[in-house]
Design a protein that fits this description.
The structure holds 2 protein chains of 2 kinds.
Chain A lengths: L5 H4 L8 H11 L12 E2 L9 H11 L1 H9 L6 H14 L11 E4 L1 H13 L4 E6 L5 H5 L7 E5 L11 H13 L3 E8 L11 H14 L2 E5 L15 H7 L6 H4 L1 E6 L12 E5 L2 H10 L7 H12 L1 H28 L3 E2 L7 E5 L9 H14 L2 E2 L1 E2 L10 E5 L5 H35 L5 H17 L2
Parallel strand pairs in A: 1-11, 3-4, 3-5, 5-6, 6-7
Antiparallel strand pairs in A: 2-8, 7-8, 9-10, 10-13, 12-13
Helix pairs in contact in A: 3-13, 5-13, 6-12, 14-16, 16-17
Chain B lengths: L1 H9 L4 H51 L1 H7 L13 H12 L4 H5 L15 H6 L3 H11 L12 E2 L9 H17 L8 H4 L8 H14 L11 E4 L2 H12 L5 E6 L4 H8 L4 E6 L10 H13 L4 E7 L11 H14 L2 E5 L15 H4 L10 E6 H4 L8 E5 L2 H10 L7 H12 L1 H28 L3 E2 L7 E5 L9 H13 L3 E2 L1 E2 L10 E5 L7 H19 L1
Helix pairs in contact in B: 2-3, 8-18, 10-18, 11-12, 11-17
Classes of the chains: A alpha/beta, B alpha/beta.
Chain lengths: 462, 545
């Protein structure tokens, strides 16, 4: 029997990363309040589950007007939907920028949008620069079928993972060393997994960089509607507008990806969009979108809802309040367990610092810790290494996809785990100390080391 | 006839480069011959070509390092590639010429100066929309016929959409839709559809689709839901299978004429080739194994690895149904060469007339060994008249293919509320049965009337039992027996008769003069109008010849 293609059998789609293994474990033993209270709580899935949007959609279905719309032109995509979507996007950006529906291409989800843009802009031998840590799915979405490569822009906790000019240059040079042609930079703003919005300074820096190198910039703004506290969200389009770059080359090289999966909590509806000012990219992406169109029925279903300005305004503000409240709960729960987070103002997750819980400052220790958290504590969180973070010990913890009670339970479990770790560690070091004292044949430096480590650990856990 | 073969030959090589070098050489050799035959003699005759050859290499090497300039400098020397300019295959051959040259970046370190461009895949897009298929669609959009509103508009006979039984679907939706999506109204079941779903479709939907497929094929075979992978339309289904079964640079054998969309679905982003297997009117455009074998061997000679055969059953644009024996023969051929068979059965529900429809699934039902090489593509766009809903199916007996395809469906998933709605609709067996029967009856009626109408004008059609179009022979009306003549006639039909039809060259038909007329967007009243209009053109053509 003939074999399958290389693409079908290769492993570069990143499906084996720990990010997905955690999910698999969750699937085997999912938490349920009544049926399976000891199961694994899913904190690795960035899903938003507000109730209000569901009520609105069902209201729309019962509305006879939209019923007629739905059935009159079933087979065609409707222009009203695109218009409603661009207006919604504008609203999220405080109406500081407006979008032209003709520059928008609808795709079946942001996954399809990112891959399609990559097909349009890059091919084998090309690379895109991505700041780390980044969404693990990019390894699959951007590289798998397109043949393009990702070269990371290293960011570190020393400056709160912000992008610096030197990091950008270094990544660019790194790509050249690998004999790859850099086609552009891809950022996620607000960031996944950091949960922070990019500052104006960073965006300015990026625009200067892509202007100088004459490359593209893709801004994945899928979390733009989940910004719940200050500083607010600044879209790349806004910065371009403020710098009056509308009629320059760089205007055509900036592209935005959006989706309703996170902001509206409707990932099952498969609604994504590519926005570009370059007509060639729009034409190509439109043609490619045949491989992943948005269902016309879904467009009808959402069109009335998105055009209802009163609803969208109310929804966006309620969503923010809810996310803020939930994030605060997570943060305070983590604090009780002695764990801090990277200060965040957006997203459905937090970037959590568990470096002090590692047995050593290595990724192996991170994996060890992660396994314990998934299997013993029964929380599925995402380890930083799956997001290509350069420093071990960081984890992404999602909070928007569960009820308050479940979140509380998760925090309790984590606290007991951390407490037990402290006790165990102190017992362990105490035991070591005893052994060292007892055996005289042991070298004195072993004794001294174990004694010191006991002290160090105590200090960290404070 | 050699036209298509010519373009096929060119495609694996970086077209523009070769053309540039070739053109330059031609301009030098001819005068050189004069020198040698004249006073130059043998010595000059050997030194000069060597010197020129050396300089040619230098010239080519210089151009290779600067890809941007090269593209511009080579456009005047298109003499060796007339096909890239011909309108019919313009869009698609251009794409072939510029895709996938993976060896290039590895050969020489790219110069990093100069503004970055978009990927090579995209270059042909803007120019390519000159293909008659797209020109026709645009014209119809601008000036669409409406019985009352725009009686002089362009009548659409070029889009294979089935509107004959659409109102049955509409009526069902009007009565049942909201209930179907939300459940029984007492509980909001929307949370079940809003969240992330399995990318290859809900199991419940797979079960209903399997049942529907069985019903459509008159229960001759039953489909196993766990062998189904659902995609957002048949278009990605074909692309995904292409990605799974072939590597860039491999090829599929496809009998011509074929659905123009295959050029995009099978080749574009995958880098896979299509090798044409010509079918002739003498055989009623049925596939002959001799032709298949010949094409396979030619591919081998060219160093192309053939990974499979793609057939459409019922076929598009001809509309004929392969017989049971021919399908067995095809399976034997595939077994012998150890390749896959992809059977595009998206029109299985649109059969009419007396011939028997046999699915590939039925053929392998009894064969255990060969099942793993057969894959079926289906969708709801044609049979249920719901192209906008984006529902496609990959059905395979090969677990590895299913596993790989499943992973790829994340890029082409079906919307969850659409799935819910269709679960309800397809579970309503009474509706489904009525629909399938009514659809077939209406198709039969329209087909008979349309073909009779064309016959009166002296236009014969291939006898077919599938699809909602007819494959008409208008070779008697074209000025010259060539693609050019065919396109002239097409133009007349579009601009004088104001009907948009699909010319055979778009479908890579080897014989000029054939056209596909789709009648499923018409009502019976429209047929006389259409015939009258076509007559305007056929009369003038007859007078000329």
């Amino acid at each position: 029997m003939g074999l399958l293609s290389r693409k079908a059998t290769c492993n570069s789609h990143g499906q084996d990363s720990s990010y997905f293994l955690g999910w698999q474990e969750y699937e085997k033993n999912p938490y349920d309040e009544t049926k399976n209270p000891k199961g694994i709580i899913q904190m690795g899935l960035a899903e938003n589950q507000p109730k209000t949007q569901m009520q609105q959609v069902s209201k729309e279905m019962a509305n006879p007007f939209s019923k007629n719309l739905l059935f009159s032109k079933i087979t065609m995509a409707i222009p009203e939907f695109k218009k409603a979507l661009v207006d919604f996007m504008s609203e999220i950006r405080g109406n500081k920028v407006t979008f032209d529906p003709n520059n928008m291409v609808l795709t079946a989800g942001a996954t399809s949008a990112n891959e399609t843009l990559m097909f349009c802009l890059a091919e084998q031998g090309d690379a895109f620069l991505l700041p780390t840590p980044y969404y693990p799915g990019f390894d699959r979405d951007l590289k798998w079928r397109t043949g393009a490569e990702i070269v990371p822009i290293q960011c570190s906790s020393s400056n709160r993972f912000k992008i610096t000019e030197s990091a950008l240059e270094e990544a660019y040079q790194q790509a050249h060393k690998k004999n790859l042609r850099v086609k552009g930079v891809l950022i996620t703003n607000p960031s996944n997994p950091l949960g922070t919005t990019m500052s104006r300074a960073e965006l300015d820096l990026l625009i200067n960089f892509i202007t100088a190198k004459e490359i593209h910039l893709i801004s994945d703004e899928i979390y733009s509607g989940t910004v719940f506290s200050s500083p607010g969200f600044v879209s790349i389009m806004e910065v371009l507008k403020d710098r009056q770059l509308e009629n320059t080359d760089v205007w055509d090289r900036v592209h935005i990806v959006y989706s309703l999966s996170k902001d509206l909590g409707l990932p099952g509806f498969r609604v994504g969009a590519i926005y570009s000012n370059d007509p060639i990219v729009v034409a190509a992406a439109t043609k490619m979108s045949s491989f992943g169109l948005v269902s016309s029925q879904t467009q009808y279903l959402l069109s009335a809802m998105l055009s209802d300005k009163k609803f969208t305004k109310e929804y966006l503000s309620k969503n923010k309040k809810r996310l803020l409240k939930r994030q605060n709960k997570l943060v305070s729960g983590l604090e009780k367990a002695g764990i801090s987070i990277l200060e965040s103002n957006a997203g459905l997750f937090c970037w959590v610092d568990m470096r002090h819980l590692l047995s050593s400052n290595t990724f192996e220790a991170e994996m060890e810790l992660w396994k314990r958290i998934v299997y013993d504590v029964k929380l599925n969180i995402s380890p930083g290494s799956s997001c290509h973070c350069t420093e071990p010990g960081w984890f992404r913890v999602c909070f928007a996809n569960m009820s308050e009670d479940t979140l509380k339970l998760a925090m309790q479990r984590l606290k007991s785990f951390v407490d037990s770790m402290n006790v165990n560690d102190s017992n362990k070091s105490h035991q070591e100390l005893k052994n060292a004292r007892k055996s005289r044949s042991r070298n004195k430096w072993v004794f001294r080391l174990s004694f010191q480590s006991f002290h160090d650990r105590e200090q960290d856990e404070r | 006839m050699t036209r298509t073969r010519f373009s096929r030959k060119r495609s694996p090589e970086p077209e523009k480069e070769k053309a540039g070098g070739g053109g330059a050489v031609m301009r030098v050799i001819v005068p050189l011959q004069g020198v040698v035959q004249g006073s130059g003699g043998l010595v000059l005759g050997s030194i000069i070509p060597c010197a020129l050859f050396y300089f040619l290499q230098f010239y080519l090497k210089r151009n290779r390092d600067d890809p941007n300039d090269q593209n511009e400098s080579n456009s005047p020397s298109q003499t060796q590639n007339p096909t890239t300019r011909s309108p019919s295959s313009g869009q698609l051959t251009e794409l072939t010429g510029l895709t996938r040259t993976p060896s290039r970046p590895l050969l020489s370190p790219r110069s990093h100066t100069g503004p970055v461009s978009i990927s090579g895949r995209v270059h042909g897009i803007v120019k390519g929309s000159d293909s008659p298929y797209y020109v026709g669609l645009r014209r119809v959009k601008e000036d669409q016929y409406d019985e009352l509103g725009n009686p002089n508009g362009v009548i659409q006979l070029g889009l294979a959409e089935n509107k004959l039984s659409l109102e049955l679907v509409k009526d069902w939706l009007a009565e049942n839709a909201s209930h179907a999506i939300l459940g029984n109204g007492k509980e909001l079941s929307i949370s079940g559809i809003a969240t992330y779903q399995p990318f290859d479709g809900l199991m419940e939907f797979k079960v209903t689709v399997a049942g529907f497929m069985s019903q459509v094929m008159e229960n001759a075979v039953s489909f196993n839901p766990s062998q189904i992978v659902l995609t957002a339309g048949a278009t990605p289904a074909i692309e995904i299978l292409s990605f799974c079964l072939a590597d860039a640079g491999n090829a599929f054998l496809v009998p011509t004429p074929y659905y123009p969309g295959f050029d995009r679905d099978v080749k574009w982003r995958t880098g896979v080739e299509i090798i044409h297997v010509p079918c002739r009117s003498a055989d009623n455009f049925n596939l002959s194994i001799t032709a298949l074998d010949r094409a396979f061997n030619q591919a081998k000679k060219r160093g192309l690895k053939v990974r499979g055969i793609i057939i459409s059953n019922p076929s598009n644009p001809v509309g004929n149904l392969p017989s049971r024996e021919s399908l067995y023969t095809l399976l034997d051929f595939a077994r012998e060469k150890n390749i896959h068979i992809i059977s595009n059965e998206i029109l299985a529900g649109c059969t009419h007339g007396n011939e028997e429809f046999v699915s590939m699934a039925e053929i392998v039902d009894h064969e255990d060994v060969d099942r793993k090489r057969v894959h079926i593509v289906y969708g709801l766009s044609k049979d249920l008249s719901l192209p906008g809903f984006r529902v496609g199916v990959i059905y395979s007996f090969n677990e590895e293919v299913l596993a790989a395809a499943k992973k790829l469906t994340r890029f082409s998933s079906i919307s969850a509320p659409t799935q819910r709605l269709l679960i309800s609709m397809l579970s309503d067996s009474k509706f489904v049965q009525t629909f399938i029967t009514t659809n077939r009856e209406r198709l039969q009626r329209m087909y008979v009337q349309f073909v009779a109408g064309l016959k009166k004008l002296g236009i014969g059609c291939i006898k077919s039992s599938g699809g909602f179009y007819c494959w008409a022979d208008m070779s008697g009306f074209i000025s010259s027996y060539s693609e050019k003549g065919e396109l002239e006639l097409w133009d007349k039909l579009l601009n004088i008769a104001k009907v948009n039809v699909t010319p055979g060259s778009c479908c890579h038909c080897i014989e000029p003069g054939w056209f596909r007329f789709c009648f499923a967007t018409l009502t019976e009243k429209d047929i006389p109008v259409v015939m009258e209009r076509i007559q305007k053109v056929t009369e003038t053509c007859k007078l000329k010849s």
